[in-house]
Amino acid sequence: MTAAPPPLSQLVADGRQALLGWAELADPMIAGMMARAGFDAILLDAQHGFHNEATVVAGITEAALCGKPALVRVAVGAYPLAARMLDYGAAGVVAPMINTAEDASRFVTEVKYPPLGGRSWGPTRAMQIQRQTDPQAFLAEQNARCAAIAMIETRSAMDNLDAILAVEGLDGVLIGPGDLSIGLSGGRLDPVGTQVSQAIATILQAARRNGKLACAFAGTQERAADMVALGFDFTTVGYDAKLIGDAFGSAVASVRGRVDRPG
Ligand code: 3PY
Ligand code: MG
């Protein structure tokens, strides 16, 4: 049997930096392909991506087959779903549009067991994914193991950054550069512009100050390399629909280029 997927904290121990495969497409085989390709962890996107509860269960299982942990991004305000994703065996949950410390606290309450939070007990599948057969031992390590990650992607979140990061039980932040650019500019999508780049530096410093994980969404390989160079713990490298679409496009262009070549 493959070893159990490690917790996210282990992937970034001793200053290591992890790459996060971002899966919008709901076929669980995508998660497996990403895991085999070398991504350290996989995120299944149930906000803008096409994942539902059944495909999340399958995607987490497929990643676990390769010994890789899977996170799930839930929809805006869907805090109660966080605990359900963890019951399915997710290593952590990403909550979009966290704007205040109150938002972060409500989210943490769903992710952590008492006394830190209010998560309800029922981890049949999560115990299988973690290869844990002792319920008390499982319970004892979950609050440290299951990550609550808040997306910082609005002007309000920037205004409340330190208060959000100070929430006990919040493990880290993930920057959403698309929404952040729209919010900061008052309506322009510019995820790699100067305004967002400055905000990224501010968020990274604030995460470090508060001892929390710093995660970046990067839409391209070039941008991902920049985020790794800045020191982010987790960085995405584009996302499956774009990477696959690009690969199709270059395959077609390559064949057409050979066929159409004069002489
Ligand atoms: C954003 O850029 O706003 C994101 O949420 C990344 O998916
Ligand atoms: Mg967003």
Q: What are the low-pLDDT stretches, counting only 5+ consecutive residues below 50?
A: none
Element order: H for helix, E for strand? HEHEHEHEHHHEHHEHHEHEH
The helicity comes to: 40-55%
Q: Look at the helices and sheets and give the structural class.
A: alpha/beta
Specify Rg, calculated over alpha carbons. Answer: 19 Å
- Beta-strand segment tally: 8
Query: What characterizes the major β-sheet?
Result: 8 strands, parallel, barrel
What general form does the structure show? globular
How do the strands line up in the largest sheet? Answer: 1-2-3-4-5-6-7-8
**Proportion of beta-strand residues:** 5-15%
**Average of pLDDT:** 97
Please sum up the structure shown:
This protein is α/β, with parallel strands linked by helices. Helix content is 49%, strand content 14%. The model has no long low-confidence stretch (mean pLDDT 97).
Task: Give structural notes.
The protein has 13 helices and eight strands. It is an alpha/beta fold and 263 residues long. The structure holds 3-hydroxypyruvic acid and magnesium ion. Magnesium ion binds next to helix 10. Residues 153, 176-179, 191, 217 line the site of 3-hydroxypyruvic acid (3PY).
